[in-house]
Amino acid sequence: MCLGVPGRILSISEDGMSAQVDFFGVRKELRLDIIDTPVQVGDYVLNHVGFAIRRIPPEEVGETLALFDQILKAAAHDDLMAEDVRGEMAAGRSSPGGEPGA
Prior knowledge:
Layout: E1 5-12, E2 18-23, E3 26-31, E4 44-48, E5 51-56, H1 58-72, H2 80-93
Antiparallel strand pairs: 1-2, 1-4, 2-3, 4-5
């Protein structure tokens, strides 16, 4: 299953082609090549395989984060969506250099 995971932009590179993004405490660098609309620090985006694919409109951020909070708190470890989100977050934690998103 493929799932876009929401995260908040912490910084944008000087060339505007990548951003440091926080995903529930995990920091990763995302490419901004294919995002649907320009973004700035503080915006929320959906990540898919290392690319920001969509800016989440401010009026949808609260609802989106609440949904993912529910997914992450799912008790069932056989929940494919929850496992996909956990896997995406774990990938950020196990990056080279020992720091999330390093």
